[in-house]
Design brief:
2 copies of one chain form a homodimer.
Chain A (H helix, E strand, L loop, with lengths): L4 E5 L5 E3 L2 H11 L4 E5 L6 E5 H13 L5 H9 L5 E3 L6 E3 L2 H7 L4 E7 L2 E6 H16 L6
Antiparallel strand pairs in A: 1-7, 2-6, 3-4, 3-5, 4-8, 7-8
The first copy, chain A, binds a DNA duplex (30 and 30 nucleotides) through loops.
Chain lengths: ~140, ~140
DNA sequence: ATAAATTACCCACAATTACCCACTATGCGC
DNA sequence: GCGCATAGTGGGTAATTGTGGGTAATTTAT
């Protein structure tokens, strides 16, 4: 389970270090360092999947009629952008330019755990998102 | 059951000592010193869960539709911030910077029992919160 | 085919964190 | 009041994690 929030810097070459706790989860729960990075269709961030979770997603999409407009849009935005990456010896991955642009990631980036997957945000975008999420929850009657 | 209010100091490295009575509860009722620390979405404080209680919360969240806006906001604020910690030999945990910022904790911090969980407050924030909680109760017709 | 650019791989340093030990303060029993 | 036990605090050291950068390999363009 990916949990926790970590801030790491992208270097000049476009590489970012996957936080060690996340690498541990990949190693222990999935026995593979390989991840799939794709656009998140509903937020200006990237979503990172362990191979297994990605396959599960593909299976779900495959179960839907392929002429469905939503499915088509999903394929175009998410699946087309997805690529496999294996981290280098230091645990870093190179984020390609198109994905960097999509999420607007600058130097300071935030990794946010989201259980089966985790997200990569530009630090500023994360802050504003966090503020609005908190505002939304403020007057809610949460039963958990 | 976590009860009572204790004041402890955070040291320069960002570590705070979990009060001994709380450590006892963790040991006796949960048989595990490990805790999960996360943002409290509705108050400027951190909430500390024994592993079991955290799992219970995750189960509740998982039972809700994941496209629910509230659920999403909850994941971003609470789950993404959550981290597991096992106290060091002296019973201390290191609070990461982002959580320290969120709760605005300075040197003097308050631990407040909250039955299944407990809270960590900045001492000043705790005082003001306490005052307004008391004010709220002032003219209530309490049947307990 | 050659040159330029990009990417992968490796090494080294810096910063942070985990772990351990020692000291101080406080409460409790005698 | 004195000593003992427990709780809380401070700090040093070693290991881990994060960051920067060089060089070789690969790809792309000319």
């Amino acid at each position: 389970m990916f949990q926790g929030e970590y801030t790491n810097n992208m270097d000049d070459k476009g590489r970012i270090n996957i936080p060690a706790p996340f690498r541990d989860v990949l190693q222990k729960s999935y026995a593979e360092p390989i991840v799939i990075i794709a656009r998140d269709p509903q937020n200006p961030c990237l979503r990172v999947y362990p191979q297994q979770e990605w396959k599960r997603l593909l299976a779900k999409v495959g179960a839907r009629p392929s002429n469905d407009r939503i499915v088509q849009a999903f394929k175009r935005t998410v699946i087309s952008s997805a690529q496999e990456y294996s981290p280098d010896k230091q645990g870093r991955v190179l984020i390609p330019q198109n994905l960097r642009d999509y999420a607007g990631v600058g130097k300071s980036t935030v990794f946010a755990g989201s259980l089966d997957t985790f997200e990569i945000w530009d630090a500023n975008a994360w802050d504003t998102q966090l503020a609005s999420s908190l505002a939304l929850l403020q007057n809610q009657d949460l039963d958990f």
